[in-house]
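Re-run requested by the PI after the first attempt was lost when the workstation crashed. Everything re-entered from the original request form. Ligand of interest: 2-acetamido-2-deoxy-beta-D-glucopyranose.
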Amino acid sequence: MEFSVLWRLSAVLLLCPLYMGVGVLCEVTCSEEGMGMEGGHYTLTKQLEYGSILIYHCPDGYYPFPALTRSCLKSGTWKPAPRRRPIQQCRMVECPNPLGLESGSVLPVQSQYFVNNKTTYECYSGYSLRGSASRVCQSHGKWSGGTPICSRDSGGEDRCADPGIPAGARRSGSSFGIDDELTYRCDDGLNLLGSKTRVCQESGQWTGTEPSCYYKHTYDTALEITEAFGSAIRESLQLAAPIDDTDQEGKKITIDKAGKLNIYIAMDISDSIEEKEFDKARNAVKKLITKVSSFSVSPNYEILFFASDVLEVVNIIDFSGENRKPLEEVLANLDNFKYDARDNVGTNLNLAFRTILERMAIQKQRNETLFKEVYHVLIFFTDGAYNMGGSPENTVAKIREAVHMNKKEERDKYLDIYVFGVGSEIFDEDIMPLVTKRDGEKHYFKVKDAKELEKTFDDIIDESKVVGLCGLHRNYDDGTANSIRQRYPWMARIENTHEDGIISKCMGSLVSRRFILTAAHCFKFADKPDKIRVTIGKLQVVNGASRIILHPDYNIRGKEKDGIKEFYDYDVALIQLEKDVDISINIRPICIPCTKETSGALRLVGEATTCKQQEQLLLKNPIEEVSFISFDKKDQMDQRSDAKLKLEVQLRDSCIRLAATQVDGITPLNLKDVVTDNFLCTGGRQPTRDNIACKGDSGGAVFKDYDDYRTIQVGVISWGTKDLCPGGSSDVQQESDDESRDFHINLFKVVPFLKKYLGDESQDYEPLQFLDK
Ligand SMILES: *[C@@H]1O[C@H](CO)[C@@H](O)[C@H](O)[C@H]1NC(C)=O
Ligand SMILES: *[C@@H]1O[C@H](CO)[C@@H](O)[C@H](O)[C@H]1NC(C)=O
C-alpha cells in the first residue's frame, strides 16, 4: 500500500478545449491516488469516470471502515471524500452489544464483541432462560442462536410471553398484558430492522416481527433468507395453486387458478450494483422463476431492470387472456437482455414502482372482477439508493390502495412487497417503509452480494415442505448417496423371499404415499406380502407390504403352447404398503401418466387436460431420451443410466426385431404377439450407445425429467434380450452392444389398472386424481 502518497490528492485537469466555438464538456476524471486500504482492496465500476463507484473489499470477517463505497462526482472528486483520519482500513466485524439482557448476567463483559467471541447467559434465581444460553459472534455480524430471555417463573398473569431484548437494542415497556405496547430502539450506529413497536394481542402473540439491530456491515445469510422468504412465498404459491372442490351436485371439480398470481420482479442495475454482478443477479431471477414453476402454479410475470430508466424485459400485460407466455419464453427474454451500464448514472427507484402501478391499473381497467382475485407479489432487488424520481413511498402507498381497495384487513394477503437489499452499501432507512409488514413475516433481506443471492434462490423453496407434488426433486447431485436420494426420491428396492427361501431383488418406484409400482415377474404365485421388504433408498425406511396386486392380464406361461417359455405382456404390479410413507426431501412419489398431478407437473393446468396431451408431450419425438436407475457395485451406489426409446414406427420395428434372432421361441412370425404394442424398446448402439438394464433393475422406473424439477415415469423395466451382466447388477454401468435390447411396459397402456387401485376413492388412503379421458 502506498501510504506515502495517500493524501497528496492530485489537482484535476480542467482545461476544456474550445471546438469551433462551442464549449465541450470537460472530461473530468477522479483520481486513484491514495485510495488504497489497509488490509483490503477496491474495485471501480466505471474506471475513473463520472458516476463510477469505488467499492472496498475486505476478507471474510472484516468490513471496510470508515467508507464502504465512494462515488466519483462530476467535479472529479470522491463522495464521501477520503480523509486522513480515521484511516481507511478493514476492521474486524463486530456484533451488537448483548448486555441488554434483563434479570440475568452475560459473560464476559466487554465494550465490543468481535467475530468468534463467545458469550454465555445465565438468569437470576426466580427466572428461567429461554433462547440460547451461549452465542457466538458470526462473520456476517449477527449472534448465533436466538435472543436469550430471562422470564419470571411466576409470570402467569401475562397474556404474551416476554419477547426479550435483542442485542444492540433498548426496550421501553415491560408489561405483557393485552394491548400493552413495547417500543425498541437500537444503539448508535445500528439500524433497526423489524418492528419498532409491538403490541400484545388477545391471541397471546405480539404484533409484527422481532426487531434486530444491524450495523451497515451486518447481512442475512443465504440460510436465514431461505427460511424466511421461502416460507412466505410458499404460502403465496399455495394460495395460487389449483384446488379441488365439489360443485353443487357433489361432483369433484378442480378450481383452476392459473393467472391468479402476478409476480413483479424489479432489479436495480444502476451503478450501485456492480456490472460483473449482473449475470449472477440475472441467474438468481431465473432460478427463482424456475423454482416457482415447479409448483403447479402459472404466474403472470412482469420483469424489469431499472437505473435512470426502466427496461421492461417481460410485460405482464402479455399474459392476459388465453395467450399465456410460456416459461421458456420468459427465460429466453431474460437471457437475451443485454446489460449496458454506460448510460446509467442515475437510479430511479420510484419509476420502477410507478411502472408496476401502471401495469396494475391497466389490468384493473380491463377486468376488475378478475383483478380482485389476483395475488400480487412484488420482488425488488436494490440497494435502496436513488438520485432521481424522488422517494417511492407515495407510489408504494398507491399500489397498496390499488390492491387493498379500502379493505386492508380483508385483502392484506393479496399484496406482498419484498425487497432484497443487494450491494456494497445498502440504505435500510429508505427500504424499510416500502416492504410489507405482517406479523411473523419478514419482507426485507440484506444480501452480501449477487453470488450469495444465487445460492439463496437455489434453496429457497425447500421441496421437503411441499406435500402432494409428484416428481419434485433436487436437480443436482454431488455424487453422494444422500444427494442421489434427493434427486430420485421415489426410488425403492424390493426384496422378496419366496416360499422356497430364495430371495429375489427388484426395483420399484413410489407412486403414491401408499403404493410401489414394480414388475409383476418379481413375484411368484405363492408369495406372501409379509415376506416382502421394501426399502426406500439407503435411508432404510422400511415399510411392510399388505397386498401384492398383479396386473390381471399378466400370465408368464400364457404362450407356452406356442413355444414361448416366458411371456411378459402386462408385466406390472403394485405393492400396497401397510401405512403411508412420510413425504420429505428424501421420499416423494414420482409422477405417473394420466393423473391431474402429472398435468400440473407438465403445466397443462388450466385446460381440460387429457391423457393424450400428456403422452404427446412426453413421447412426442421419434426418439426420446429416458433414464433408469441401476446399482453400481463398484461404487456401491445407485447411478442414473440413460437410454433412448425408439418410438417412430420403423425405428421401433428395427429395435424389437432383434428379439426374433436372440430369444428362443421368438420368430419373425410371432414377434409382434410376444413384443406387443405395450412394450417400449431401448438398447443397441444407434443413434448412440444406450445403457442396458441388468437383472436386479427389473421393475424400476423408466423416467423423464421435465423442467429440471419434476420427474415423470413412462415405463417399467421388464425384460431384455441379452444378459450383459450375469450375477446381477454390473460393476459399472452396463453399455449396450449391437444385440442387446430392453423392453419396458408403457405405462400409458396400463392406465385402467393403475386407476383401479391408485385412484380408488373408497379406501383408507388418499387416491391419485386420474383424468377422465
Ligand atoms: C474477542 O475477539 C478479539 C478479536 O479476535 C480477541 O482479541 C479477543 O481476545 C476476544 N475476546 C475473548 C474474550 O475471546
Ligand atoms: C373477468 O374475469 C372474470 C373472473 O375471472 C370472468 O369470469 C369474466 O368472464 C371476465 N370478464 C371479461 C369481460 O373478460
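Saved to the shared folder this time. The chain has 15 helices and 40 strands.
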